[in-house]
Amino acid sequence: MTTIRIPRLGWSLRFRYRALAAGIGCTLLAALVGVLALGSGDYPLSPGEVLRALTGGGTPAQDFIVNELRLPRVVTALLVGAALALAGALFQSLVRNPLGSPDVLGFTQGAACGALTVVVAGGGSLALAGGAVAGGVLTGAAVCGLAWRDGLHGGRLVLVGIGTAAILTGVNGYLLTQAKLMDAARAVLWLTGSLDGRGWSDAMPLLIALAVLGPLAVFGCGRALHLLELGDDTAAGLGVRVEPLRLALLASAVVLASLAAGAAGPVSFVALTAPQLAKRITRAPGPNLVVAMLTGAALLATADWAAQRLFTGHQLPVGVVTGVLGGGYLVRLLASERRAGRI
């Protein structure tokens, strides 16, 4: 652990070299994949041409292809990955369980329920994203309300979330049967998780949310969150207001997960996998929020690029790739937890 102090401002910054190296590595990987994605497609461009177009030195055609057609999708992928990873890291830290994520706790299913309600009602794409955000937020409020009893206990929250997810899965299946054929086909693609056709209007709400909630979680609540992982009594003894902190961070995580679902659909397993990968890369205690966000951004951008390139002439929804990889990781995680005697 290294500490850098700025006496004039009264600030101090503590970091671990391994965590710093991991963050830089994830950033470079995300940037590399982003450049490759911007240069791939029916009109291929070299990395040099992509960089010239990004800095305003390319031809009008290159500028249009890179900045207008491809860049919004890449930026949306990076932001969705970062938002899901931050939400997952907050959930896992608050419930002190590696299985704590929007996928498991029912918030993803709630966002899907809101979106499907809009589809059945005949709403457009913008209304669908709004329905997803509303569904996720309402589900988060319902789960927290049902789990509340003299405070929010992590185990109780997980159990209520799993039950809510099961109920909403059935509701979502029923809503699909009530939609028109074309609307149902559009909804199924969205439910898989897809970044096709994403524009700046999809990226901006996530950018604003991350700009506000990211620093709040990392710098405003990071130390308190680390203390909370030691137990409620220990954290309270060290001056942490446990329940207000837990509610504020849960609300932030629900908003981030809901906005991510509204932008790209319920992309599975990124929120579960990215924080665990960050812990294994850094080998550091605590939630590792910054590295988790960078890992999630790199993970989803890589998955989206792979989804476009795995099969020639056919693009997969990014949720298919994250589902396959994340499902395999979940099996491995459950096996390791069983060997450790925790389940």
Characterise the protein shown here.
The protein is mainly α and 343 residues long. It has a single domain (15-339), classed as ABC transporter involved in vitamin B12 uptake, BtuC (Orthogonal Bundle), CATH 1.10.3470. It contains 15 helices and two strands. Helix 1 (17-39) runs parallel beside helix 14 (289-309), helix 5 packs across helix 12 and helix 6 runs antiparallel to helix 7. The model has no long low-confidence stretch (mean pLDDT 82).
List the SSEs and their pairings.
Layout: E1 2-6, E2 11-15, H1 17-39, H2 47-54, H3 60-95, H4 102-105, H5 107-121, H6 125-147, H7 154-178, H8 181-192, H9 200-220, H10 222-228, H11 232-237, H12 242-264, H13 270-282, H14 289-309, H15 318-339
Antiparallel strand pairs: 1-2
Helix and strand pattern: EEHHHHHHHHHHHHHHH
The CATH H-level superfamily is ABC transporter involved in vitamin B12 uptake, BtuC
Low-pLDDT parts are none
CATH topology: ABC transporter involved in vitamin B12 uptake, BtuC
**Proportion of strand residues:** under 5%
- Based on CA atoms alone, the radius of gyration comes out at 20 Å
Q: Calculate the terminal CA-CA distance, rounded to whole Å.
A: 32 Å
